[in-house]
Amino acid sequence: PYSKLPEAVPSIFTTIGKLAREQRALNLSQGFPNFPVDPKLIDLVEKAMREGYNQYAPMEGIYSLREVISNKISSLYGKQYHPDKELTMVAGATQGIYTAITAVVHEGDEVIVLKPAYDCYEPAIAINGGVPVFVQMKGIDFKIDWDEFRAAVSSKTRLVIINTPHNPTGSILSAEDMTELESILRDTNIMVLSDEVYEHMVFDEEKHESVSKYPGLSERSFVMASFGKTFHVTGWKMGYCAAPESLMKEFRKVHEYNVYAINHPIQKALASYLSEESNYLQLSSFLQQKRDLFIKAISPSRFSFTPAKGTYFQLVNYSAISDEKDVLFAKRLIREKGIASIPISVFNVDQLDQKQLRFCFAKTDETLLKAAEIIIKI
Ligand code: PMP
Ligand code: GLN
């Protein structure tokens, strides 16, 4: 009776990761790169530590980093966030997401979640007494049915969560999607939590559509970013939240007494590393090469797929191979074939099983080719 999350179970990343380690399988499941971090970035962290940036940072993050972030957002998306009032450094996007939800979701509030959805949204909604309202994205390209979305909006809707580029599907929201959302939310008090941790991983000349580009959205949005994704350092747990002053004020009330401040020397290093655009603008082409290498190498297989438009995840469909449920099929591939992936029914409404697995292609070419060798024999 004391449990606030009676239904929560260990995440699919925990479960599959453990099995993959036990079986020594090639691990393309949890999303993290297996290639080295830029030594320049490591040097900058070491320098910051040696220079003495080892005590508490300011609550909202160091000014120099917030200033570079503000300039970056303004040059990419044309929106100026005030470094002092509208940007806060967080210990990874997961923490930022939890904080934003806790700051604004009251008991009984409805939160619209597009499914499949990354798994950290719902526990945060539940622990705050919110009620998730699901809209399942459908079809091979996981488009949002905006009529269904509109029907999900009610007088109790407090927040909408969007994620582009999207984990686990690798799809992206288009400019039309964003204007549709902007028009649905016009004249409401509904807020948006925009999970944009994969903003620098968009392929085939497509553009990332940040809520920051749309005034009717940015005025009501918390935007979440993660340096773990952008700089191949998922273990550092560093990110930021951008939001208009009125929302950021509430965000900081929770952040200050839960986290207070985040890693100081890494903030110092990031401030200088982030000021060189090429350190993040080349990520899309770097990962597109990886995606292309991977999908070319698995094309003789019995899996079917459409190339990911963003993120470092490729979904594949195995209905030509097996009728087995995706969780069982993924576990069997680990045990019998030595390769680990993420089954995606766990992210869907009612665990809807579309016979799809997610492979992470943020791996060395060698790992990707080894994986493909296994995949084409399945
Ligand atoms: N949102 C999405 C969609 C993600 O894929 C991830 C990382 N798996 C996160 C948030 C969390 O990011 P972080 O590691 O910075 O907490
Ligand atoms: N974001 C990573 C993924 O989607 C996993 C992070 C986690 O394990 N919670 O694979």
TrEMBL record:
Signal peptide: none annotated. It comes from the Bacteria. Pfam families: Aminotran_1_2. The keyword Transferase applies. Keywords: Aminotransferase, Pyridoxal phosphate, Transferase. GO terms for cellular component: cytoplasm. CDD domains: AAT_like. Residues 26-375 form the Aminotransferase class I/classII large domain. One of its GO terms (molecular function) is pyridoxal phosphate binding. InterPro entries: Aminotransferase_I/II_large (IPR004839), Kynurenine-oxoglutarate_AT (IPR051326), PyrdxlP-dep_Trfase (IPR015424), PyrdxlP-dep_Trfase_major (IPR015421), PyrdxlP-dep_Trfase_small (IPR015422). Coiled coil: none annotated. Its cofactor is pyridoxal 5'-phosphate. PANTHER family: FI04487P. Belongs to the class-I pyridoxal-phosphate-dependent aminotransferase family. This is Aminotransferase class I/II-fold pyridoxal phosphate-dependent enzyme. It comes from Muriicola soli.
